Write the structure tokens for this entry.
Amino acid sequence: MKKPYIIDGHCDSLIHFVNGERTLQDPSEGGHWDIQRARRAGVALQFMAAFIETRYKPSSATWRGLQLIEGAHRFIGDHPDQVFLVQTKQDLQQIPDSDRIGILMSVEGGEILGESIFMLDIIFKLGVRALGLTWNQRNALGDGVGEVGTQSRLTLLGQEVVLRMNKLGMLIDVSHLNEAGFWHVLELSKDPIAASHSCAQALCAHPRNLTDQQLRALAKHKGVVGINFYPRFLKEAGKTTRDDVVRHICYIADVAGVETVGLGSDFDGISEAPDGLGHVGDYDYLLNDLTKRGFSTSEIEQITGSNFRRLLSAVLK
């Protein structure tokens, strides 16, 4: 039986490529993600995030973001027989049957836009198809989850960005956005949205995680939450294992439906990973765990890939 394909909604491997630390080709380089292990694991599509480090914000955020986007194109150009850029519904049709891994470029944080809606069109033309409106702090679009005690909704620019993303065919990512901003996005967006790398707050009371109310609203709007593998989002204290990832998958499937659950590993953006899920090559073990928990083959296929594929099919042009 053919094993389920994988779509991972978030990794930060790109920054290591751009910084010259790794080629992302060979597991001997270390890290969580590389082409060889990803292909063996059945990864069909990888969201590759341009994460703009704090030291570049705000004055050099646009420059750094564009440097990372250029790096993504260079990475794809270095391995044309192994990876390809996904920008359209037509590109998406190659998933999961292509022998190459699809790469969907995302940007983690609206700081790349500065204060200009026109920058959104520019990064779209450069191939970006998903944008996280904020990181943890406030920017020109809205407040991140790190802005404690604020109930601010999106700014006027943030509202313009949501509407323009709908028109262009870009996926809106609400991971890192504060709760008031989350609800504002759902009011505005005609397209379904993603929380690309978040978990369930009921199981781990971290502000980066989603409440049951948010999970149900995401489900109502046909959205997807990608389960993050960062231990502190999985469990408030103590050792974390692959079973903690499964626990969040099961919980969100119960609360919001299996059609709302995806994977958003945060590989190469997290300082540690759960025991038994230390890199992309360990996905087979996770698939076995889901089978043991009673998920059917079709449900596992939804969780590992087809939910994100459905979401992208509804958003991309």
